[in-house]
Amino acid sequence: MKLFRSAPLELPSGGDLAGFEGATAWLNSEPLTPAGLRGKVVLVDFWTYTCINWLRTLAWVRAWSDAYADGLVVVGVHTPEFPFERDVDNVRAAVEEMDIRYPVALDPNYEVWRAFSNNYWPAVYIADAEGRIRHHHYGEGGYEEIEQVLQQLLRDAGAEGVGADLVEVEPTGFEVQADWDNLLSPEAYLGSQQAENFVDGDADLQRNHWALAGDWAIGPRACVLRGSDGRIAFRFHGRDAHLVMGPPTTATSVPYRVSLDGEPPGADHGFDVDEQGRGTLSQQRLHQLVRQQGRIEDRTLEIAFEAAGAEVYCFTFG
Question: Do 151 and 205 belong together in one domain?
């Protein structure tokens, strides 16, 4: 894809690039510093591995890191949202599975987050070769503008061969963009701190309401199944349905079964379940339960767990 621009972008300075001293460890790199990055354009990407909004940006971030490797350094700052995302082994597994090859700073104490005065996942901050923040973007989208900023700052730094062509990406899996025209269900947290639209009983759920059946402990961040079987139901409107969930430890697993309007999902199953809706919790991560192939309308999603210990945190949709 090519875009012709008649004049340079206006890129005001937003102050100096903050440091990464608060990072407790690094993946794919030795620790990096603003001083050591001078002479390079730097893109700092705040992420957490269960965030669907960040996952849908990853194809572009990965492509920019590859396309502009001679003059650009991408630094991923992993600041966890859920407790299990503080586990270094979980993050390391996510980095490998998601083919993230650029440096990743682990920020479990939110110190780098605070140094940047950041409040969002995802969030992108771009610094020029002199270490000055010249652009930022919060949330999904803005890919053309971000890449144009990178190209301009690379040219300003003397990089050769940087034209106006934009990277081409073919997202797969979680990285596929949402069907925004048919998305009417927002993110829904299940812990008591942020839960909304919980109802007692699921006989006639309204859109974006949810219910539990079985012996559950409702904690501040998650609902945890105490009995040998339990169900959670959600009435949603969107192409995709995801759930952040996992077993109590990575050494255990919990089988589960997904249904749509009381029937196996068939061709509408997500990639974490089969056509009969069968899946197994063996990792603490985001799971895709539904990716509908036809007309999008209100559907009731139900997940039935067949053993104790399942922890469910947050529904997201796409």
Answer: no
